Amino acid sequence: MDRHIDLKRLQTFVTVSEQGTVSKAALLLHITQPALSRQLHELQDELGIKLFERVGRRLLLTGEGDQFLTDCRSLLGHAASIRERAQSLRVGDTGVLKVAATPQMIENIFPSFLRRFAALYPRVQMRPVEAHAIDHTAMLERGDVHLAIAARVNDQRFGAYLLPPLQVLAVRHSSLGFSRAKDIDVRRLENGPLLLVNSAFATRKVFDAACRLEHLEPNVFIESGATPTLIALAEAGHGIAIVPSTVRIDRRKLRAARISCRNKPLKVETAVILGKTASASALCC
User: In tens digits, what is the pLDDT along the chain, a chain of 285 residues?
Assistant: First the structure.
């Protein structure tokens, strides 16, 4: 014997209790009277109790039916809450959203971005997960994170939402004598000394590729995974920092220029990469 209780039958029972007649309840529920009566009979048979007494044309609750009505309303209320919760999860406007990003992206972009996101989706908790870009696809594949903000990858396993590209900047102290031009050719940087981000950065890979193309052997003073360190050294006049355009440069003594190679700016195509469990609506911000 099937022991589960059909929520549709419970809703029918509650509606009949509230309307008092089968005809009114059937009209409200948009079903035929015979179908409604059959649901009531099946429910009573399943429960083994009598729910209604007929008085004239009306149906009145028995003592057992009156007690059962309270339980039904409570159960249906919980079911409605569960449906609403499931719908919210489906459209992505509640819960926890784990986003992988590099330490530099978290430092320079996330403080203001998190405030904007919280204002748009107050019921979603965005949780940044610090990780090097080289690890992002593996984290998405395992389901450790829902999204990753990284260099664009051609991987059919994941969806992507394109972002503005990152520029590769040369940041130097104003005393070094470079002009105020917005762009600087990579060949002018060969003698350095250069303050480079390490090989985990996509911008470093692009810069190295440009140097190989021009057969340059740059004079490297230091490599670091911490862009604030490179900016501090540049501000002190120890060299030219080669950093991504996400880095904040608000010191008056520093100047920044986009690096170009053969009249084309060096850039990194970036994207929000969607994992298997990510919702597209998470990108609406």
Answer: 344 567 888 889 999 999 989 999 999 898 999 999 898 888 888 888 889 988 888 889 988 888 888 888 877 876 776 666 556 555 555 678 888 888 877 877 777 778 777 777 787 888 888 888 778 888 887 778 888 887 776 666 677 777 778 888 898 887 766 656 788 898 998 887 999 988 878 888 889 999 999 999 989 999 988 888 898 898 888 999 998 888 877 766 788 888 999 888 898 887 777 765 554 444 444
Residues 247, 182 within the same domain: yes
Distance (Å, whole) CA 78 – CA 215: 69
The answer to whether position 275 is within a domain reads no
The domain of 12 spans 7-91
Tokens of 71: 């339980």
DSSP H or E run through 117: helix 110-120
